[in-house]
Amino acid sequence: MTQVASTLLILGASGDLSSRLLLPALGQLLTNQRDRKVQLIGAGSEKWTDEKWRARVRESFATSKSVGRAVQSILHSSTYHTADVTKAADLKMLLDACSGTPAIYFALPPAIAALACKALESLELPPGTQLALEKPFGTDLRSAIALNKQVLKLVPEDQIHRIDHFLGRSTVFNLLGLRFANRVFEPLWSNAHIDRVDIVYDELLGLEGRARYYDKAGALVDMIQSHLLQVMSVLAMEPPATLNARDLRDAKGTVLRATQVWNDSPVESSRRGRYTAGTIDGRKMPSYVKEAGVDPGRNTETLAEVTFEIDNWRWSGVPFTLRSGKALGEHRREIVITFKPAQHVPRGLHGVEHPTKLRILLAPDGMSLELNVNGPGDPHELDTALLEADFGPGELLAYGEVLEGVLDGDPSLSVRGDSAEDCWRIVGPVVHEWAANVVPLEDYKAGSTGPKSWAAIG
User: Fold this and answer.
1) With 263 labelled, which of 81, 117, 141, 196 sits at a CA distance of 20 to 30 A?
2) Topology classification of domain 167-395+416-445
3) Rg of the chain in Å (alpha carbons)
4) What is the structure's pLDDT at 364?
5) What's the confidence (pLDDT) of residue 103?
6) Does the annotation mark 227 as catalytic?
7) Are 304 and 182 in contact (CB under 8 A)?
8) In a 10 Å sphere around its CB, with 0-12 CB exposed, 13-18 middle and 19+ buried, how is residue 377 labelled?
């Protein structure tokens, strides 16, 4: 039987991830679930007092308007420990401070998280201990395999949460509900009726002080290797029998195992770009290579686009193009499903016939369906009509959904070990060709739609 964690231990608690995402989400979770009791312990290399830590917790809770008895309990009782989380003795001290079953959240860079897992190997963890690790899970296929082996020495797979906040419960359930609860869509969800799928996550924001991580990762690893491949797997999965962790993760894993670069050619099926100086919403943006902390010699891309294929009976022949970039002129977070043209349009209907498109919007979630209809004037003229709907945002922030799963020992929304490895396998050929500069790194002006030579998608 799954044990509910009674302590949340955050390693790297003094960092940005903790204050900006984890703590506000925890506060919101406790506001919504007032009977939940959890001890909060922060640990980091900074020499903070309990008072300074509680002030940080209070500031973070305020951003999510957290209130209630459980929130006040945390604000009065939470403690902070200065520790080297790569040392077994320090980790033992932290575990001894935990009451009941702990959930250990590694809010750490991948290399430090791996060292902390190695140090934990010499300790006896309490039964039911949950481990939560942030992406990227490893830095390539080889390191992901090694890290999987390491964490499996600590706890079983169903107690490991490889975090991808894109799998926040509302987004996943909205996709599943739209597809499986509507007969009008599910019979059309295959290569017989769908021409292409585009998953786009374009941001107005630039580097925003994240050079230490981003300049070594780039758009491909930061977004496509993790987030967007996970979204694709939910979109393309076979109908799971239930929404429990095993069925949901089995269905996603089956999709990822069948996924590879389109035509097995990274050169023909991928593009990369990097922003130069420009203006976004009246704000001047420096060239990426002039951003603080950036090494121009790394040739890090800030815009990545790769086309994949899912080699199975349902999707064979359908290109899935995943794109993400920074400092672009349009905020786009959507899945665009383009259907094949109508089999026959009777003579006598005039005008431009557009392909039917289903757009599924992400954060905030919604949808629009573009249909060909008779125009308002001449009934023989075709026009385009738009059907729109907003999806429910869910009760919790994406990280709130993630933390709920971690504390409850439910890995449904986390990435399973084999899927984490498959994501690295899938993008590996692209990473290799880009590192060899076989695929050109094209410039685009900040605030534009991308390099001028690129055709629009979606």
Assistant:
1) 141
2) Dihydrodipicolinate Reductase; domain 2 (3.30.360)
3) 23
4) 80
5) 96
6) yes
7) no
8) exposed
